[in-house]
Amino acid sequence: MELTFGINDRPKFGQTILFALQQLLAIMAATIAVPAIIGNGMSQTAALFGAGIGTLVYLLLTRFRSPVFLGSSFAFLDSMATAFAGAVSMEAGYAGLILGAVFAGLVYVVIAIIVRFCGVKWIDIIMPAVVIGPTVAIIGLSLAGNAVGDLTGGGLEGTSTYICMICGLVTLAVTMLCSVFGKKFLRMIPFIIGILAGYAVAVLFTLIGMAADSDALKVIDFGLFASIQWVPDFTFLLAAKGVSALDSAYVATIAVAYVPVAFVVFAEHIADHKNLSTIVGVDLLRDPGLHRTLLGDGVGSIAGALFGGCPNTTYGESIGCVAISGNASVITILYTAILAIVIAFFGPFATFLATIPGCVMGGVCIALYGFIAVSGLKMIQHIDLNDNKNLFVVSVILISGVGGLTVSFGHVTVTEVACALILGILANVMLGGQKRDAAGK
User: Fold this and answer.
1) Which of 26, 256, 268, 294 could form a disulfide with 317 if both were Cys (CB 3.0 to 4.6 A apart)?
2) Is 407 helix (H, G, I), strand (E, B) or coil?
3) Is the pTM of this model over 0.85?
4) Please, which residues bridge with residue 313 across strands?
5) pLDDT single digits (tens) 167-210
6) What is the DSSP string of 24-62?
7) Sign of CA dihedral 201, 190, 47, 375
């Protein structure tokens, strides 16, 4: 696709701040949702701070050549819950969170070392376009339910579904209109304009609901401003008292909960970077190299968990934002990371971001997740689907992924994306994909 700003381009300072804010809005809802789901006193602002730190580490280790933000990973939700469930105290649970992130990050580091010496040709062999394309599409499609769920129910308890939908659809409509018909600069910040429009509508409905004492019209929880948190509760501070409570059985439990999930997320890491490569026009698996992106993801995940408790991962929302805005500038990602760190200490603004209702973000995510799905399908536009071999491989991936096929082993769940990718690889190998691709057929 044609980019307005490439990887090495530097937009003007004021523009970069707006682009960074747009990236932050795109990733923030999911990033702070993970600690909210886990509970146990986990700080959402600390998770935002940790995501910023993790992204800085990623950018440094990839030599500022890969424009993607790292945020809290949903794949480790069960692992994090296990850390608290098996802990003898809350402090020990926080220590377990950090230990688990270290285990997961080390998996990435080990794989990065292997890739450094073995190269990435094996990726192209076992994951050609016919496999990776529909897998990327599944990443977007697997999130479709989340977007629609937020759109229809992302307000306060008791808020009318139709009111939520109006707010979300206004957001989506304004985003699309800005992206398609807006002048050059507006086309690059459609999410900011869309979210502000949806938020304004939500405020209007909420004020009317407060005046009429009707819960059905209340979309925004302004009560959040009554409990502004100025300083995040950093994980390493909470975990300090729990380190002495760690024993061998608990450490083994943490390892079993985190390490297998890291291999699952590894598959999604490759799919994300393949997708981003097609958007920016540079094969990121070769420049800066898969070993560097893995190292950045792994060490960045450890660094993020140290402060926020949540292992990080590359975000599809960030990639979708790059695709829609046409801005692949790494400087924008750098500013986004710094902005996330600063906002974590600026309570009022962080609280304002937290009051953006889910239905508004749902309207944005319909576009974001849709672009991820479409970018994956674009990878197979030159694949001959009249060839039954290709047709079967694509079909297996799409149906297993859209159908939500998952496999669980105790506390470890192989996600639908990973299952779809594994089945696609097996189908491609079984049908002679490697030999046929090598022969140019």
Assistant:
1) 26
2) strand
3) no
4) 71
5) 999 999 999 999 889 887 788 889 889 999 999 999 999 999 99
6) HHHHHHHHHHHHHHH-TT--HHHHHHHHHHHHHHHHHHT
7) positive
